[in-house]
Amino acid sequence: MSPSRKFFVGGNWKMNGDKKSLGELIDTMNSAKVHSDTDVVCAAPAIYLDFARQKLDAKFAVAAQNCYKVAKGAFTGEISPAMIKDCGVTWVVLGHSERRHVFGESDELTGQKVAHALSEGLGVIACIGEKLDQREAGITEKVVFEQTKAIADNVKDWSKVVLAYEPVWAIGTGKTATPLQAQEVHVKLRDWLKSHVSEEVAKSTRIIYGGSVTGGTCKELASQADIDGFLVGGASLKAEFIDIINAKH
Ligand code: 13P
After folding, report:
1. Mutate to test the pocket of ligand 1, among 232, 240, 241 (most ligand atoms within 8 A of CB)
2. Does residue 166 carry a catalytic annotation?
3. CA–CA separation, 140 vs 159, rounded Å?
4. Distance between CA atoms of residues 73 and 201, nearest Å
5. Could you tell me the distance, in angstroms and rounded to a whole number, from the CA of residue 212 to the centre of ligand 1?
6. 69 within 8 A of 112, measured Cβ to Cβ
7. For residue 222, what pLDDT is reported?
8. What CATH fold (topology level) applies to the domain 7-245?
9. Does 234 contact ligand 1 (Cβ within 6 A)?
10. How far is the C-alpha of 205 from the C-alpha of 200, rounded, in Å?
11. Catalytic one among 98, 105, 130, 166?
């Protein structure tokens, strides 16, 4: 990665854990030696956002895993950026492949959520990624560019956005993209930002990789020029998350 982009590691806890196990994980994180040149963000289940924010050391940020596109109202089951902020939480993950493919969220809705979350001052980890059949059909670029456009059309301030490339076939499968496969897409995404947004945004925006990242695979992935960090699922619930945070060391 470029030294001008601060390394960024997100842990996406998804719908896992309880107060006991997450409390233990937080204790492990709080007492670990982590390098200060990395931004660390833990995405907690909505019901544990307050708990996570209260227990995690202040050097770790907290993210919601989703939010709705308006501030309040009759939207049973949803949470808003205003509520997220009210819990002292500063980030939100949007467009995760599980939101897209399990819950059927469209590019359009993802874009609307990005716009609203940013307007409320949250940082956004915006996720994109192709499915296996799309990769095999040779349309990876087309898919991720379309998803990125739906996000980019809703961004004014890129300093609050981290783009997470998560190939769906690598999520939760133990099948990590090779460093070259990941780098190849990251560099294309950076080129897309350069031609569709600006050279400055292309240079400064963190593009992170997600999909079965482990303590064992993180160092080689982190050595790629355009991989600026990770979004980690399963391994973020284990002590090896510390090794992933420290992947550049
Ligand atoms: P895994 O690391 O479990 O493959 O999950 C990746 C992911 O979806 C992070 O958002």
Report:
1. 232
2. yes
3. 26
4. 34
5. 6
6. yes
7. 98
8. TIM Barrel (3.20.20)
9. yes
10. 8
11. 166
Placement of tokens 């990005």 in the chain: 114
Q: Where are the alpha helices (DSSP H) in the chain?
A: 19-31, 49-55, 81-86, 97-101, 107-119, 132-136, 140-152, 179-196, 199-204, 218-222, 241-245
Residue 65, φ and ψ in degrees, nearest 5? -95, -5
What secondary structure, in 3-state letters, does 110-167 show? HHHHHHHHHHCCCEEEEEECCCHHHHHCCCHHHHHHHHHHHHHCCCCCHHHEEEEECC
Residues contacting 27, CB < 8 A, separation 6+: none
Ligand 1 binding pocket includes 65 (Cβ within 6 Å): no
For residue 15, report the distance from its CA to the centre of ligand 1, in Å. 12
Q: Which of 96, 98, 116, 186 is catalytic?
A: 96
Token pair listed for 191: 């080129």
3-62 confidence digits (pLDDT tens): 689 999 999 999 999 999 999 999 999 999 999 999 999 999 999 999 999 999 999 999
Residue 217 beta carbon below 6 angstroms from any ligand 1 atom? no
Q: Report the alpha-carbon distance of residue 241 to residue 232 in Å, rounded.
A: 8
- For 75, counting Cβ atoms within 10 Å of its Cβ (0-12 exposed, 13-18 middle, 19+ buried), the class is exposed
Q: Which atom of ligand 1 is nearest to the CA of 213?
A: 2
Kindly give, in sequence order, each residue whose CB lies less than 8 Å from that of residue 163, ignoring residues fewer than 6 positions away.
126, 128, 148, 151, 189, 205, 206, 207, 208
| pLDDT tens-digit map of 190-229 | 999 999 999 999 999 999 999 999 999 999 999 999 999 9
Angstrom distance (rounded) from CA 240 to CA 152: 33
Q: Does the C-beta of 171 come closer than 6 Å to ligand 1?
A: yes
